[in-house]
Amino acid sequence: MNSRERVHLVLNHQEPDCVPVDLGGSATSGMHVSSVYLLRQALGLDEPGTPVKVIEPYQMLGEIKPDLIEALGIDVVGISSLKTLFGFKNEDWKPWTTFDGTPVLVPGVFNTDPEPSGDILQYPEGDKSAPPSGRMPQGGWYFDAIIRQPPLDEDNLNIEDNLEEFGPTSEEELAHFGREAKRLYEETDKAILANFGGTAFGDIALVPAPWMKYPKGIRDVTEWYISTVARRDYVYKIFEYQCDIALENLAKIYEVVGNRVTVVFATGTDFGAQNGPFISTQTYRELYKPFHIRVNNWIHKNTQWKSFIHTCGSVRSLLPDFIDDGFDILNPVQTSAAHMDPLELKREFGGEITFWGGGIDTQRILPFGTPVEVRQDVHERFRIFAPGGGFVFNSIHNIQAGVPTENLLALYEAVKEYRNYPIT
Amino acid sequence: MSTIIENINKSIILGDYKSITPLVEQALAEGIDASTILNSALIPPMNEVGGRFERGEYFVPEMLMAARAMQTGLKILKPLLVESGTKPLGRVAIGTVKGDLHDIGKGLVAIMLEGVGLEIIDLGTDVSPAQFVGAIPSDVGIVAMSALLTTTMTQMKVVIEALSEAGVRERVKVMVGGAPVTQAFANEIGADGYAPDAGAAARLAKHLLGID
Fold first, then answer.
1. Which of B11, B59, B194 is the mutation pick for testing A, counting most A CBs within 10 A?
2. Of these four, A59, A150, A154, A404, which has the most CB atoms within 10 Å of its CB?
């Protein structure tokens, strides 16, 4: 049985030979470059000092190369858009060293000149004549968006200002999606997880638009959250137009990628915080649900893709809606958040949605626990989530920097040991 | 309670931040003094909002709207309160720890603390241990630290150590919060308190200062 068949079976809630594993299939199921470096070194895949490519500069995710995929028994590969969140392409690689001393390769226009404070700023499209859009504080590990909120004229809000980033998928991008889908389908036996963009409604990571030089409309994070209640009609109209555009794009994309893609990363909008949902169920139903239904209905009517929703945090109260809206997969299954007990989630929702994540607690056990605790946690997660299929092993969100090497090794050793059906 | 005070209360609870300025101005015009407006019109509704959030009746957008409404009112009252010599119940230095730029949660906690009558020195994000220590001489009773990341939460311990080294640890209470932070972690690093959300943080701060 190959990886693609394995993923296919669990997504249809059947048990294959072993639980499929994802690492690096998406920007929410990967690993920080510092941890990738440590893991590659520990596995003897590289000579000391061999840099790792930063394939997602905003979160500083490291490249999961085929040799690492084979070493860890990974079953999923990803397709993402041509440009990064900062609007530049991953090309013209140059060396850099992160604040924690990790040797890395970054795209040619990735800014490596520190500010007087020591912070590293990034510029949209790498254009230093534009205001910076991302900041990594001195000693930090990631970038955060620099909010560039133009003054709001309350009486003259124009939804087109918030729609600038949603347009027809370019020919270049379409060719890229088509080429990548064909290459990965033919050259690997992995399941393809594709993020085509455009179908996430109100994703707070995207609202500040760090790839745009002069974003207009509502771009401030607080202002956006307030707008979901105080200017609901405005936000609804943005979503309505965005959805129309997205469905046209999906049709074009489907023409070039077909059913080579197994899973589509439909949305990464976070609906959960640590202790409860970000928004009320009523807000969800009024503002987001109609568009999730439209996107998922299109997908299920026209393709064989499975639809993937990423949302962090405590979202148990919204799960029945997600299922009802046609999502097939939940990621990252943040069991460390309130009301997200793995056993209860599996019992209540396991028959209707696939858990893509929840494999190891990345807030406490993986960074701060012992290797023994890591192994125990992984073992327990397999026991809970794997029976009957409906589980793709992945850590809860990206594995961050600062994880001890012995814990990284314990994690993947435990995965190898416990992933086989029947689960014991 | 006078009608105008009731109206301000209602506007804050509903997060109707646009109506606050005229209402507070009207209250002042009616001769109600700034400190009464603060204590009867701005603070009680924030307690109510915090309670609704804890009970799962209010969510992040509603909290942000109420906070903006309260701040709008406070901005008008502040110079008048200073003028009349009204003393805050206590002073809190708050910040997101070094390496961490996340401030929505920290901002909400700051506003809730303000909402129970405390004065806030907001040190911002990416705050170094030296900056936290540097804030102590300004009569600070509480140091409040926030972190969203597992990679930065360990900085909280560094700050507590820095407070000890500077010989000021005993002069202040330390409270911590943020997504990955727990009571167990707070105990482990020697913090005086942990709160899971902004409403609880406001109660904790009052408790730590002995004014609850």
1. B59
2. A59
Q: A with B: how many residue pairs have Cβ under 8 Å apart?
A: 78
A83-136 tens-digit pLDDT: 999 999 999 999 999 999 999 999 999 999 999 999 999 999 999 999 999 999
Tell me the pairing of strands A306-310 and A263-267. parallel
For residue A137, say if its preceding peptide bond is cis, omega within 30 degrees of 0.
no
With beta carbons under 8 A apart, name residues in chain B contacting A404.
Answer: none
Close Cβ partners of B167 (under 8 Å, ≥ 6 residues apart): none
Query: How far is residue A33's CA from residue A402's CA, in Å, rounded to a whole number?
Result: 11
Using a CB-CB cut-off of 8 Å, the residues of chain A touching B107 are: 222
User: Is the domain of B102 the same as that of B204?
Assistant: yes
CA distances to A64, A154, B62, B66, B203 from B73, rounded to whole Å, are: 52, 20, 17, 11, 22
Q: What percent of chain B has pLDDT over 70?
A: 100
Residue B169: strand, helix, or coil:
helix
Spatial CB neighbours of A99, under 8 Å, sequence gap ≥ 6 = A136, A138, A139, A140, A141
Residues B58 and B158 in one domain: no
* Residue A268 amino acid letter: G
pLDDT at B2: 86
**pLDDT tens, A329-368?**
999 999 999 999 999 999 999 999 999 999 999 999 999 9
Does B99 share its domain with B51? no
B16 DSSP assignment? -
How far does Cα A405 stand from its chain's mean position?
Answer: 23
- State whether B197 and B105 are in the same domain: yes
- Taking CB atoms and an 8 Å limit, are B151 and A364 in contact across chains? no
Q: Does one domain contain both B108 and B177? A: yes
- The CATH number of whichever domain residue B139 belongs to comes to 3.40.50.280
Say whether both B186 and B121 belong to one domain: yes
Q: Domain with B17 in it: what CATH number?
A: 1.10.1240.10
Bridge partners (DSSP) of residue A61 are A32, A56
Please indicate, yes or no, whether residues B114 and B185 belong to a single structural domain of this protein. Answer: yes
How far apart are alpha carbons B96 and B153 in whole angstroms?
9
Please measure the distance between the N-terminal and C-terminal CA atoms of chain B and give it in whole angstroms. Answer: 23
Question: What is the extent of the structural domain holding B171?
Answer: 91-208
Provide the residue range defining the domain that includes A267.
3-49+59-86+149-418
pLDDT at A71: 98
Beta bridge partners of B127: B97
Q: What is the pLDDT of residue A146?
A: 96
User: Considering its fold, how many domains does chain B have in total?
Assistant: 2
pLDDT of residue B87: 85
* A134, A128 contact by CB (below 8 A): no
The DSSP symbol for A162 reads G
- Cα distance from B59 to chain A (closest Cα, Å)? 5
Taking all residues of chain A, what is their mean pLDDT, rounded to a whole number? Answer: 97
Residue A342 is assigned to a structural domain of this protein? yes
The predicted pLDDT at position A61 comes to 98
Number of folded domains that form chain A:
1
